[in-house]
Design goal:
The chain contains 3 helices and 7 strands, in the order ββββββαβαα. It is 25% helix and 27% strand. The strands form 2 sheets. A 5-stranded antiparallel beta sheet has the order 3-4-5-6-7. A two-stranded antiparallel sheet has the order 1-2. It is of the alpha+beta class. The protein has one domain.
Amino acid sequence: MELVIDGLDKLKHITYHARTISDIHIDKRGRYSNATSYVFTFPPIGNGLEGWNKKMEVYLCKFPDPNDKYELFVMGLHGVTCHWLELEEIKDIVVFQVHIISTMSKAKKYWETL
């Protein structure tokens, strides 16, 4: 079942590790409809040239895997930041915010340990 989330604009007013979402859009990453994702864009910090300071995009897949879980990850750091969420965890906007924060924390930790 395709994921539809009401109230996503509320997430733009929340700060995640000193970063605020600048854009939320839907991206179709391929020719298949089940490759569609919500994309939460975080603008670069400062000059944005390296690591944590770069523009970041957090992806939430709109279609579940065979176990009915939805994938949340930072593009380019999938192996480090991936979370598998149940529908209830996404529909509750406060719980979903916690997962975005956790995903961003994993990305930040990755860049700080290089």
